[in-house]
Amino acid sequence: MSFVPALPYSGYSGWLFLKRTAATQQAVLKAQPEAQRDEAYFRANIGKIDTAEQLVADRRLLKVALGAFGLQSDINNKAFIQKILEGGTLKEGSLANRLADKQYQKLSAAFGFGDFKTPRNKLSDFADKILTAYQARSFEVAVGTQSDDLRLSLNAERELSDLSSRTKLSNDARWYSVLGSPPLRRVFEKALGLPSSFATLDVDKQLEMMKDKAQAQLGTDSLAELAEPEAMNTLLRRFLIRSEAEAYRTQFGAGTALNLMQTAVNFARNRQA
Questions:
Q1: Residue 264 in contact with residue 12, Cβ under 8 Å?
Q2: Tens digit of pLDDT for each residue in 1-30?
Q3: What topology does CATH give the domain 11-134?
Q4: What span, in angstroms and rounded, lies between the C-alpha atoms of 13 and 148?
Q5: Exposed, middle or buried: residue 175 (CB in 10 Å: 0-12, 13-18, 19+)?
């Protein structure tokens, strides 16, 4: 895809610029010829699909379906994806439910091949929902070609909003989802300054430690509250500044990194004012 997002700044300054221009840049991406062709083909054909086998056999449909859930790298793993789709999510032992990456579970639940006699892709609003998710993910992928940290920030913003909307989940269940999502986990680990040894701890200890750090540094351990705009901004600011500081430290040494980061923080504040 020829779309290249405009990202003149890195780190938190880049995030502020991206947030101000995201709607315009996403519209430019959506207007790209390839994106238009993908959308038109998906709208015209997704309702004709009756089985998971038919879906994985159509590469153009599968591209959008997987891309909507950030699973585009599995485009060639057709047998694996078919098994996930056919197993559904209503059975506790299904493959989608057993996998640590819950994007597979979301994919299977969205289509419903293994759960319902009539799959969800027959619903009138199905194409709109999948295409909206696909376009958002495609923008994140494009941003990631220039800045993985900004891609992770976009992902965190979207995923935390989704978690907070799932009202039946307890706060601990939401935190376990964070721990089970490598991109989201990475944001929290960096933002909270957790050591590399953190991943070797028992998962329940990880949960306890991450909640304690969030309470101390972000003012709350409630993921629903962290999905609110002000708290989200605090989380992502800490993540981006820490990440950039680490990159500067590696390249220039601790003293220079501190000076550079102070300059970056002051610049970001002035841009916000």
A1: yes
A2: 578 999 998 899 999 999 999 999 999 999
A3: AGR_C_984p-like (1.10.3700)
A4: 15
A5: buried
